[in-house]
Amino acid sequence: MSLTVDDQLLEKALRDEVDHASFIACVRESLPYAWEVISGVATRMRDGGAGFADNQTPPPDEHARGQLLRVLASDAMRGALERHFGVRLAFQNCHRVAAFDLDADGAADRHACFVSPRAQLLNQSPELVDC
Predict the structure, then answer these.
(1) NCBIfam families under this entry (predicted)?
(2) Structure confidence by residue, pLDDT tens digits, 87-127
């Protein structure tokens, strides 16, 4: 299961749409490792001024890896995180998460390069075969 949804939030979802803040809180509490990685790259992107930051550190275990895969494979969760942090997220392999400010100089080109088939192939290594 991707998210731990409390009874109140589930009841709200059954009645109508869930507000952004409640959904973000659910993601943050359910997937703390993924939240930490994504909030970290978003903060470094803003602080670095280059319109880009990434995480190249593999997760400490399969549970953490699963959190990243779940949060980035879900359109709802990924979109909510992008809106919350004001970034465009990109993902390679099983752990390389990047945040982009597509309005920053050169960031759109850097994003296009990061998500290209060439970049994906160049980012392979024997250690990542089973990720």
Answers:
(1) SCO5389_fam
(2) 999 988 767 899 998 787 777 788 777 766 776 777 666 65
- Between CA 43 and CA 76 the distance in angstroms is 21
Q: Rg (Cα) of the chain, in Å, rounded?
A: 16
Q: What's the longest Cα–Cα distance across the chain? A: 48
Q: For 97, how many CA atoms within 13 A lie in the half-sphere containing its CB? A: 31
Quick check: 95 and 127 in contact, CB under 8 A?
no
Distance in angstroms (rounded) separating the CA atoms of residues 1 and 22? 18
Tokens of 22: 């409640």
Q: Which amino acid is at 12?
A: K
For residue 51, give both structure tokens: 């319109």
Contact 103, 52 (CB under 8 A): no
**Burial of 119 from C-beta contacts in 10 A (0-12 / 13-18 / 19+):** middle
pLDDT digits (tens, 9 = 90+) for 64-90: 999 999 999 999 999 999 999 999 999
